[in-house]
Amino acid sequence: MAAVQPDVLLAKLKDALNGRVQVHSETITILKILDMYIEYFRKKVEGKERSMASLQKYERSKELLLTFINKHYGQTDMECILINSAFVYNLESFLKYNTNFKGKIGIKNNSVVKYMRMYKTAANYSVKMGVLIKNPYSIYDGKLTVKNAVYLAKEELKTIEDKKISIKRLERVKDIFLFCCYTGYAPIDASNLTSNNLVTDCNGNLWIQTNRTKTAIRANVPVLPSCAEDN
Q: Which helix (H) or strand (E) holds 220?
């Protein structure tokens, strides 16, 4: 008597034939590919190539994805082969309108786009590692909303500079804030600077040379005079 063949999910067979996912003895799930990238990212943080804050955002993205899968599909994880365009855009909609964090419902567009790009980045890593053949999030094309930058006028900066603060800790906070205003550095980057980051060019001008923590991009920033020095 011939052996009874197991049922084959039509969607899985179709995706496999289309080269969407490789055949593995271990099931490739949505959360597993995210976990794989988070562990890789953790090593970059330990090597001081990326920031701990960025790692925490990836960990937050996992919490959101797990909540979505649980509420929308009644599961604790799903196979990557089951991700289709409906899954991707239902996830985007869930992040925008149905998340609940500290009593606040929904996440603003730019944050949602960044979370979705995190999922896409994690899947791209799995493609590079040979775990997936095709990125299931590649269909996503959400855009960031460009907003007008808010900046302080020269007079406002001067007012902050001239403000006398008796508490030493707050005085230091003020100095770091002003430094970030003049250089464009994030507070995390400013806190990591030492005198070794200062270099002088052939014209005698001072520059700050460092790698940005968030992006790991090399940055050369001129040391500009303050408002007080301009007057």
A: strand 218-222
- The rounded distance, in Å, linking the Cα atoms of 88 and 124 is 15
Q: pLDDT tens digit string along 96-143?
A: 999 987 788 999 999 999 999 999 999 999 999 999 999 999 999 999
Domain locations in the chain as residue ranges = 10-128, 154-226
Give the side-chain half-sphere CA count within 13 A for 230: 10
184 or 65: whose pLDDT is higher?
A: 65
Structure tokens at 174: 């003020």
Question: How far from 62 is each of 66, 101, 130, CA to CA, in Å?
Answer: 6, 14, 21
Name the percent of the chain in helix, strand, coil, to the closest 5: 50, 10, 40
Of 31, 219, 218, 9, which Cα lies nearest the Cα of 122? 31
Q: How far apart are CA 213 and CA 219, in angstroms?
A: 10
- The Cα 190–Cα 27 span in angstroms is 44
pTM of the model: 0.67
Angle at 78 between CA 76 and CA 83, to 5 degrees: 140
Q: Identify the bridge partners of residue 198 per DSSP, sorted by sequence position.
A: 208
